[in-house]
């Protein structure tokens, strides 16, 4: 044989497929830290004013 896989055998040169990524993203707990006006993430939650744009939190 010439060193290649025979008929019906898996191609040994092909790596296994990567495992699936877990679904979803970051948890919703960031919602309390996001400014509704500009989308900036604040250092503290709850916050009264946005540190970036100065918008008052409703």
TrEMBL record:
Region described as Disordered: spans on this chain: 1-26
Domain of life: Bacteria
High-level lineage: Bacteria, Bacillati, Actinomycetota, Actinomycetes, Kitasatosporales
Protein name: Small CPxCG-related zinc finger protein
């Amino acid at each position: 044989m010439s060193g290649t896989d025979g008929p019906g055998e898996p191609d040994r040169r092909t790596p296994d497929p990567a495992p699936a990524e877990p679904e979803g993203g970051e948890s919703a707990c960031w919602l309390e830290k996001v400014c509704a006006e500009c989308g900036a993430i604040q250092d503290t939650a709850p916050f009264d004013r946005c540190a970036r744009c100065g918008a008052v939190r409703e």
